[in-house]
Design a protein that fits this description.
Helices cover about 5% and strands about 25% of the residues. By secondary structure, the chain is mostly beta strands. It has a 5-stranded antiparallel beta sheet with strand order 17-26-25-20-23. It has a 4-stranded antiparallel beta sheet with strand order 4-9-10-11, with no helix packed on it. The longest helix is centred in the last third of the chain and has 9 residues, at about 570-575. The model is unreliable at about 1-35 (pLDDT under 50).
């Protein structure tokens, strides 16, 4: 092996991304990857209906539009969302006549489920975790067994107190929020799963709620107080798609609203499905460049409308189509992994006839907070099967009673975890776990209740530690540093931020020290502008995206360490020119690659953990 100082630094020895599913390959080749984002719709009762969006040519928002935040979700106050896809582009009949109508007045164009058809497939292996993002309506109160310690925002403490006990007075903030599951195993997961938990990931308005919690926001209006006269103030997020930009997607899948009454609100739903020639249990598809809406999956294929036409309403949708745009119904959980079936997971609205009917997997009464799959072959009934029970998501149920007032899960999406760059990521400490879940698990503190782990509000964050669950190359984990080397410890990269250093470019006195290295070996520190999930790189893990810029080679000497800085910014400007000039407000990730001829995995080199630095003037 050549000395490291004489070798070209290509970072070529990296694990390739997971194989891309065959579906949508042709579409992917035709256009550049879209940036990850969150998109949603709101219901007809929302105060933002008729509110001008924040585009350069403002348009009145309707319940038939696909919306997105005006900017990446951040803490509020925020501008109104932008319209990404007009209801007219979904070919909704009567859309033009509904534009500008006020919230709380029905107009039969409501879209209440969305998907790109490219959602992350659920897998039975817990190594391939999936993150469930969901929203509830204004009546949801959360499951009373939701853990309250460590303190974090949940449906239980953000929701409606009239439907169950909560630890605070009425907050009424849950309806415009997006929550995530916490540590769920692969499904099917039944109603007896414990602990019952969820965590706030995205807030409706990004502002502090009545009990102090907030999170990055979407530009919606809160609270939605149901103790006030109808129409209620505030918004209800009613459909959700995270990742694929639906305005450029080859196909958009969606569902429309049934016409039966709402048990709690005391009003009828809009009947947008019947007005467009469908029923509320159908899944529809349209090509935005096409001319019409087509029925993709019928209510009967999903085990719905068994008690009459339009008696069930599909209220949330997760879909992984196999690429042909034609629905092939799954017969059992995970048969969609064969590529011959489509994964279609959904919930049903409160008031649907199938609620309290026995499901086909567990044989228990279906609730409006359950995530369902089509009836399983040879199942316990002809009704949909419960894939994730509402209780496991921390939602309240009335399972087994004649009541129809359990929490209504009315928007959902599923992404990979850790996210692969195609989905929305909130992982500021770069440990592969969503920030909201870190807080819920107690792994991160959130003393100011803003949904951001406290350690991330520092300007320097160490990440890419080689924990046992981070795919250490040859079981050489070190939870406090990079993967273990021939010293028995992992190489450690750390800053002098707590001993006189700073992130000020004017002072330029930050020092990054690489330690716990083998003695008298060569190494170099490299930097890049963005991180990536850990990828195998020689004996260690690389967590910085290409392209990277490398500083000069150094020797670890007798101490097994070397330092970069002070003068990191000045050196970067001189060495790299404009592409590597560090500017105020910019964030850079640093990591060190070093030789290790007798390392545990036999590749002759390794890398430290990484350090993320946000610089100031």
């Amino acid at each position: 092996m050549l000395p490291l100082a004489r070798r070209s630094f290509t970072l070529a020895r990296v694990r390739l991304p997971r194989p891309v599913a065959a579906r949508w390959v042709a579409a992917a080749l035709l256009c550049a990857p879209a940036s990850a984002q969150v998109q949603f719709s709101i219901d007809w009762k929302s105060q933002s209906v008729s509110r001008p969006d924040s585009s350069s040519a403002p348009r009145p928002i309707t319940e038939g539009d696909v919306l997105a935040p005006d900017q990446a979700p951040i803490l509020g106050p925020l501008a109104a969302p932008d319209v990404k896809v007009l209801g007219s582009e979904l070919f909704l009949q009567g859309y033009s006549n509904c534009v500008g109508h006020p919230g709380g007045t029905p107009c039969a164009i409501e879209v209440d489920a969305l998907s790109s058809g490219m959602d992350a497939e659920f897998r039975p292996n817990p190594q391939f975790r999936r993150r469930i993002w969901f929203s509830v309506d204004e009546w949801a109160s959360g499951h009373p067994a939701t853990p309250t310690s460590p303190v974090h925002a949940t449906v239980f403490n953000q929701g409606n107190p009239t439907q169950g006990p909560v630890p605070t007075p009425g907050v009424f903030d849950a309806a415009a929020d997006v929550y995530v599951d916490v540590n769920l195993p692969p499904g099917p997961v039944g109603p007896n799963f414990s602990p019952r938990n969820n965590s706030l990931a995205l807030d409706g308005n990004g502002l502090q709620s009545a009990n102090g919690f907030r999170a990055p926001g979407l530009g919606l209006l809160e609270p939605r107080n149901t103790t006030l006269p109808f129409p209620y103030p505030g918004d209800n997020l009613d459909a959700l798609e995270i990742g694929t930009d639906l305005s450029t997607a080859p196909i958009v899948f969606f569902s429309l609203d049934s016409s039966f009454g709402d048990t709690l609100a005391g009003v009828s739903n809009t009947g947008s499905a019947l007005a467009n020639g469908f029923v509320g249990g159908d899944v529809l598809r349209t090509n935005l460049a096409g001319t019409a809406v087509l029925r993709y999956a019928t209510a009967s294929q999903l085990g719905l409308d068994r008690f009459g036409v339009d008696t069930d309403d599909l209220d949330a949708l997760v879909l992984a189509d196999n690429g042909d745009g034609v629905y092939q119904r799954s017969q059992a959980p995970y048969d969609w992994l064969t590529g011959t079936k489509d994964m279609l997971v959904f919930s049903v609205r409160r008031g649907s006839a199938v609620i309290n009917q026995l499901d086909s997997i567990f044989g228990v009464p279906i609730q409006p907070g359950d995530l369902l799959v089509p009836p399983v072959a040879g199942g316990l009934s002809q009704n949909p099967g419960i894939f994730i029970a509402a209780e496991a998501l921390g939602l309240r149920t009335e399972r087994g009673s004649a009541n129809d007032v359990g929490d209504d899960l009315d928007a959902v999406d599923v992404t990979e975890e850790p996210c692969n760059g195609d989905e929305l990521c909130f992982d500021c400490n770069e440990n592969g776990v969503d920030d909201s879940v870190d807080i819920a698990n107690g792994g991160s503190q959130d003393a100011n209740l803003n949904g951001i782990p406290d350690e991330c509000e520092d300007k320097v964050v160490e990440h890419c530690k080689c924990t046992s669950g981070s795919s250490a190359t040859c079981t050489n984990a070190d939870a406090n540093a990079g993967c273990a080397n021939s010293t028995g410890q992992g190489g450690k990269l750390e800053s002098n931020i707590n001993s006189g250093g700073s992130v000020s470019l004017a002072l330029d006195n930050l020092v990054l020290t690489s330690s716990q290295l083998p003695t008298f070996v060569s190494g170099l520190t490299f930097m890049g502008t963005s991180s990536r999930p850990p990828a195998t790189f020689y004996d260690g893990l690389r967590c910085i995206n290409l392209p990277v810029l490398r500083y000069g080679t150094q020797s670890s000497g007798a101490s097994g360490s070397f330092a970069l800085g002070p003068g990191i910014a000045a050196t970067a400007a001189l060495r790299f020119g404009p592409s590597g000039t560090i500017t105020p407000g910019s964030t850079w990730h640093f990591q060190t690659w070093y030789r290790d001829p007798t390392g545990p995995c036999g590749t002759n080199s390794n890398v430290t953990n990484a350090v993320k630095v946000t610089f100031v003037p």
